[in-house]
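Office hours follow-up: a student asked to see two folded examples consecutively, so here they are.
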Amino acid sequence: MAENIVELNIAIGGISKELLDVQKALDAYREKQKRKEAIDEAAITFVSKAELVIEKAEKGDLQLTPDQIRRIKSNLVKILNRVRK
C-alpha cells in the first residue's frame, strides 16, 4: 500500500512539473507580449514545451484531464497564429 502511495506521489510530481513548465513558458510569452518585446523566443519555448506535454498526454505517458489538454492546445493555436502574422 505504501509503495502505491509513493508511486502515485511521484507520478503527480511529474505531472505537476510538466504543467508548471508549460505555464511558466506561457507566462513569459504573455509578459513579453505586454511589453511589446520581441516574442519569438518566448513563443518558441512555449510551443516546444506545450507540444511535448501534449505528445506525452496523447501517448498515455502523462495523465491530464481533457480540459487541461484543451486549454494547452487552445493557447498553442493562439500563439502559433500570432507568430505567423
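And the second, which I mentioned at the end of office hours:
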Amino acid sequence: MTSLLDEPGQEAPAAEGPLPSIGIWWPMLESPLQLEILEHPTAPLRGLVVRRIFELCDLEDQPVPRSGVRLGPNERAYIAGWVHAVDWI
C-alpha cells in the first residue's frame, strides 16, 4: 500500500531524491533511529542517520548529503501509515 500526497499547484516530486525509497530502509532501520525520526519527523536528519540509511540500501559508495536532509511529505505519510499499522497489531 502506498500513499502519495500531491500539494495543489505543484508538480509531483521527482523519483530521485537525497534518500532512497523509504519502503526499503524504514523497515530495516534500528528502533532507536526510528524513534529519533518519529520524535521530530520534520527536523533535518542527523548525518549518522542518513549514513545508516545509505548503508542499509547498499549505497556506501554514494556521497552522503552533509546536512539539511529532511523527510518529504510522502515519506512522513509512509511513516504515519506504518505507525498506525503497528499500533493495530
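Two things to take away from it. Residues 22-87 form one domain. DSSP finds four helices and no strands in the chain.
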